[in-house]
Specification:
Elements: H1 3-8, H2 11-69, H3 74-78, H4 82-89, H5 94-111, E1 115-120, E2 125-128, H6 146-154, E3 156-162, E4 169-177, E5 185-191, H7 194-200, E6 206-210, E7 216-219, H8 234-243, E8 256-262, E9 265-271, E10 274-283, E11 288-295, H9 297-340, H10 345-405, H11 409-431, H12 434-437, E12 445-448, H13 449-459, H14 461-466, E13 470-476, E14 481-484, H15 486-503, E15 511-518, E16 522-529, H16 559-569, E17 573-578, E18 584-591, H17 595-598
Parallel strand pairs: 13-15
Antiparallel strand pairs: 1-2, 1-5, 3-4, 4-5, 6-7, 6-11, 8-9, 9-10, 10-11, 12-14, 15-16, 16-18, 17-18
């Protein structure tokens, strides 16, 4: 090897390495720009959510505090009532109890509280505004209620809990009477907050109220009510059970996961795997916390759009910079060429040969990279299309071994014959690798639709049986033949049936219909399933590569793209649409074979 050869051969490799490094650097800059834009847009979107949430919280907190303070005067008003004072002096007088209940009913009709009643110091309800209603507290021993004990100990008390007799939750305000001197009894007002809770359901976001034990006592979603953010301590659970604060609720904790905090408070959480921005405000004299959860999905979607735009802008800037650098290099190259023209003819020929060798090496590298890309796409497609026949081979071979062990040789021979057919199909599939790289020059033949449908259903018989799926097939006329190739048409039908089986996982009704009808010049093969509809966002792009509604690891998103490619090769087309109210339909339109070929 000469010195010239040793000095020039590594140059294309070095240039390729530099190009790869520059490409990686460009991709890194684009990724950094997209990430930074995404984070900034997301934080800005979340901040806007919090600002709007704080305004809504202020309004709702003011309404709630006003609702609670509206009835605070009632217990103290009863202290001035001669009727109530006489009842405390003679608590066993039935007539006096009845007249006091009528007085409380009239007073509460004006006030509008849920209930108004008085108790003696032993905790027995003497009279109530709802004395005529089922579930009235009259005659009930309520001494275990915290609002009873706290009112006697401190003069007044508040309490939120489920009514023992009525079964309705409410906010209780109690006052010991008289305000000065030994207590003769306790006056209690019950405020119903269900109307507030009902109004929350029409507001944006999710609103919930937490009591001192971090238990949800009011919520815009009924399934969150009486559920703590975390498991209650033994003392808290004992106190709740003793006062019957939450009725018969099981107090199962919410799936509350905190993802971000600020100032000791959660700012971003997930509930049942759904992400929310959190805003909160203290209400009822700091006894409760009003929490507003805003769905982060719109902010995240906007952040993704901003990230995409930023990445695209960065790519455009890098492209312009690259063009400018290339332009400068081109100008320098022109100057160098002008200077080279002044050199001797022999020196010019040497340089031309060197340049030609470099360009040839670069061209070979590009061709090699293109071949690798095509090979990767071919491999992914063939892996997707070989999975179903391989799974059927595995099932049939296992069944054949069991049938031989049981002496059922005829059935075993049938399985072995089916295995032979599948092996032939695999051979036909592998022989068609050229479809991905070259245009096939083979003429399109004709295929029996009935045979292709039956073969595809038989190939998936095990999955159909295991999934307890009802399959019906109808071909009119039965000798219908279409333009195409037998193996590739079975490949398309098998892919559509396999997708239909996947879609029926977990469905209440599991049914697949395959219908083929001949028209004047074209026939339609329709595959319907009773599963859920296809996501409207995915439906327009369903036949693009790597687009799939399946979870990660369940599909490559190549099956429908390959199927559409094969159908177009037969001169037809593949369409998809959603059914109402549920289900999806795929239609294969192919040219019909002439009547003579059907016969």
């Amino acid at each position: 090897m000469t010195t010239l050869e040793r000095g020039t051969r590594p140059r294309p490799l070095h240039r390729y390495t530099r190009r790869v490094l520059r490409g990686c650097l460009a991709l890194g800059l684009i990724a950094i720009a997209a990430w930074a834009a995404h984070e900034l847009a997301l934080q800005r979107g979340l901040q806007q959510l919090r600002e709007a949430a704080q305004q809504r919280l202020e309004v709702e907190a003011a309404r709630l505090d006003g609702q609670l303070a509206r009835f605070a005067y009632l217990p103290s008003l009863l202290e001035t009532s001669p009727e109530v004072q006489r009842l405390f002096a003679a608590p066993h007088d039935a007539a006096l109890r009845l007249s006091t209940s009528h007085y409380l009913k009239a007073l509460n009709a004006l006030a509008g509280a849920d209930n108004l009643y008085v108790l003696d110091v032993a905790g027995t309800a003497l009279a109530a505004a709802d004395f005529e209603q089922p579930g009235t507290p009259v005659g009930q021993d309520l001494s275990y209620r915290p609002y009873m004990r706290d009112a006697l100990a401190h003069g007044r008390a508040v309490f939120y809990g489920v009514g023992i007799t009525s079964g309705r939750a409410g906010y209780y305000l109690s006052y010991a009477m008289p305000a000065r001197g030994p207590a003769l009894g306790v006056a209690t007002v019950k405020v119903n907050l269900e109307a507030v809770e009902q109004e929350w359901r029409d507001l944006p976001g999710e609103l919930l109220m937490l009591d001192e034990h971090q238990v949800v006592i009011l919520a815009s979603r009924a399934e969150w009510k009486y559920r703590p953010l975390s498991a209650l301590s033994a003392d808290a659970r004992t106190e709740a059970e003793r006062g019957r604060r939450y009725g018969s609720a099981e107090l199962v904790p919410l799936d509350w996961q905190v993802h971000d905090r600020s100032g000791g408070r959660a700012t971003r959480v997930s509930v049942a795997a759904k992400r929310y921005a959190v805003s909160e405000r203290a209400v009822n004299r700091d006894r409760w916390r009003l929490v507003l959860l805003d769905d982060e999905a719109p902010a995240r979607a906007a952040a993704r759009n901003v990230a995409f735009s930023a990445g695209l802008a960065a790519a455009v800037c890098l492209l312009l910079a690259t063009l400018a650098v290339q332009r400068r290099r081109e100008l320098r190259q022109r100057l160098a060429n002008r200077e080279a023209l002044q050199a001797a003819h022999d020196s010019l020929e040497v340089k031309v040969r060197e340049r030609t060798a470099e360009l040839q090496a670069a061209q070979n590298e590009l061709v090699h990279a293109g071949k690798l890309a095509v090979l990767g796409q071919m491999s992914a497609g063939m892996v997707h299309e070989l999975n179903q026949p391989l799974a059927a081979l595995h099932t049939l071979s296992d069944n054949a071994a069991l049938l031989i062990d049981k002496g059922r040789l005829d059935e075993a021979r049938g399985n072995l014959a089916r295995i032979g057919q599948l092996v032939g199909r695999l051979a036909r599939l592998t022989s068609q690798l050229k479809v991905f790289a070259y245009k096939s020059n083979e003429p399109v033949g004709t295929v029996s639709v009935l045979k292709a449908v039956n073969e595809s259903i038989a190939l998936l018989a095990t999955r159909i049986r295991d999934g307890e799926i009802e399959v019906s097939a109808a071909v009119e006329p039965q000798d219908l033949r279409v333009a195409g190739d037998e193996a590739r048409l079975e490949q398309v039908l098998g892919n559509l049936l396999g997708n239909a089986i996947d879609a029926l996982d977990g469905a209440a009704v599991r049914r697949i219909e395959v219908n083929a009808v001949a028209g004047d010049q074209h026939c339609a093969i329709v595959v319907r399933n009773s599963g859920p509809c296809i996501d409207p966002n995915i439906l327009p792009r369903l036949f693009e590569p790597f687009v799939t509604s399946k979870p990660p690891g369940k599909g490559l998103g190549l099956g429908l793209m390959i199927s559409a490619h094969l159908v177009r090769g037969f001169g037809g087309r593949l369409r998809a649409r959603n059914l109402a109210p549920a289900g999806a339909e795929f239609t294969i339109e192919l040219p019909c074979a002439p009547a003579g070929e059907r016969a």
